[in-house]
Amino acid sequence: MHTLALDSLMLVIYLSGIPMVAIAFTAGCMAILQAVTQIQEQSVVHLVRLATLIALVVVAGSWAGDAVSDLFERSLRSIETIGRRVP
């Protein structure tokens, strides 16, 4: 049971951390680019963030879906061991 909880926590960290780091990196690059070119339009930054998120979903969407599905199947299989006594 401990390994299932740890695996689910790590999956949540991966699924939320990777997009946040990627979006922060692209937003930082866009901030530098805007400072250099002196373009202060905020809609450009939002468009780049959205494009980054869409690219991440396209690239890593199948991996994320498989990982969530595997974790769900493991948790369903572990339900039968909850009520058992350990000799």
Can you put this structure into words, describing what you see?
The chain has 87 residues and is mainly α. The chain has one domain (18-80). It has two helices and no strands. It is elongated, with a radius of gyration of 20 Å. It starts with a helix and ends in a 9-residue tail after the last helix. The mean pLDDT is 87.
Which residues form runs of ≥5 with pLDDT under 50? none
Average pLDDT: 87
Number of strands: 0
State the shape: elongated
Order of helices and strands: HH
Structure keywords:
87 residues, mainly alpha, 2 helices, 0% strand
Record the SSE blueprint.
Blueprint: H1 2-37, H2 42-78
Task: Briefly say what this structure is.
The protein has 87 residues and is mostly helical. The chain has helices at residues 2-37, 42-78.
